[in-house]
């Protein structure tokens, strides 16, 4: 019964708290509006929500996030080195097609987001068949190595997380 009334409890709580922060008020009226939004928005949008992703090993998300954080820090220094010290004619900017073995759209989105958050790379496109990401790399003297690094460093971990 409660699941029918509140199909996405996390979203409901988020919306209610977000409203209270936006309203900057904890009055009775603000609380009523927050509860109303927290219940009605998920109910109205329920038909467009996909099934919940199957996260087989959620505890592996923490080491994954730490790995991404570390990679973002390291990539900042690498990009700075390329921009500041590498002559423009030696920068090897390229597009790389990365075949994706992941099947969960959420996992693919996390992979694409991870690539985009890491300085020096950006996810430029996702093939219509959902099997390939097009990545732009600021400096990739060996595009195959970049592709292989993405697959082993990120995609393999996401496969374990999403099972």
TrEMBL record:
UniProt-listed Pfam families: MNHE
Q: Which UniProt keywords apply?
A: Cell membrane, Membrane, Transmembrane, Transmembrane helix
The main location is membrane
Q: Which domain of life is it from?
A: Bacteria
Q: Which NCBIfam families match?
A: PRK08965.1-2
Q: Does the keyword Kinase apply?
A: no
InterPro entries, per database record: Cation_antiport_E
**Topology versus the membrane, per the UniProt entry?**
Multi-pass membrane protein
Subcellular location(s): the record lists: Cell membrane
GO MF terms, alphabetically ordered: monoatomic cation transmembrane transporter activity
**Any idea what this protein is called?**
Na+/H+ antiporter subunit E
Sequence similarity: Belongs to the CPA3 antiporters (TC 2.A.63) subunit E family.
Chain segments annotated as transmembrane: 12-44, 64-86
Gene Ontology cellular component terms for the protein in this record: plasma membrane
